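Record type: monomer structure entry
Structure origin: computed from sequence
Chain ID: A
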Amino acid sequence: MSAPSGDRVELELPSRLELLVVMDKIAESLAEVMAFDDVDRDAVAISLVEAVTNAIQHGHHADPSKRVKVSFELRPDELIMTVSDQGTGYEPEETADTAPPDLLATRGRGLFLMRSTMDEVSYDNSNGTTVRLVKRRSPAAEGGEDA
């Protein structure tokens, strides 16, 4: 299978946590199309769900009238996902991204998970919050594992 080049998928969803399962399935399916291995497929899905959860809970305070915008850009060697909310913006502390979280806490692991599992994570707070997540295909996947 050859990886897609320049395909873009965009969608909007209401800020409802019960729709996270849809995001999980879409991310997993697109990572499969990109021929990511199982570990990277899980990383893509987990990171996207975390980013959308943050947009719903922190950006929109679970207000279903506000929309979360999600886009996927499929490139030959990487998947770029962006998640945008209409909130007041959020500038994560550098330590929140790099310090190991309290594993027993009920919250606070999302930023760490995204930073740990994705190749790039960046934030733009100029209009709400937009999180950009990049996952590159591993050399084994790029070499083509199809039989």
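Annotation 1: The first strand starts at residue 7 and ends at 14.
Annotation 2: The two ends are 9 Å apart (CA to CA).
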